[in-house]
Amino acid sequence: MPYLLISTQIRMECGPTIVGDVESDKDLMEYLGATLQQMLGNNFKEWRTPKSPRVVLDLLERRGWRVVGMTGIGQTCAWTLHKPLAQQKKQGNGHQEKAAATNGEAAPQKLSDMDLS
């Protein structure tokens, strides 16, 4: 999964921070100190950590994630992070694998490298 969304409501300085949904990488969620919770009134579960967003962003940067977008929605702040697939595979199975497109070539890393025709 090359993208990750995290968010927090109202209390940016002290957390909690929502760091994933039920399909998120369990190892990454444990690294962030998150637990899978279902809040009263919701019909879905989400991973939450008591850490502040700044601490979560620092931890994710150590794992190769980088912020590509941030927005405020009412009293919620949300960050979108990206990590190239090649880095994820290297950390996930202990050896480096090249992220490949369906034709066997290396996947483009920048939008300007993609053939959009």
Automatic annotation (TrEMBL):
Belongs to the GFRP family. It comes from the Eukaryota. Gene3D superfamilies: GTP cyclohydrolase I feedback regulatory protein GFRP. SUPFAM superfamilies: GTP cyclohydrolase I feedback regulatory protein, GFRP (SSF69761). Residues 87-117 are annotated as: Disordered. Its main location: cytoplasm. One of its GO terms (biological process) is negative regulation of biosynthetic process. This is GTP cyclohydrolase 1 feedback regulatory protein. GO terms for cellular component: cytosol; nuclear membrane. Pfam families: GFRP. Keywords: Cytoplasm, Membrane, Nucleus. GO terms for molecular function: GTP cyclohydrolase binding. The keyword Kinase does not apply.
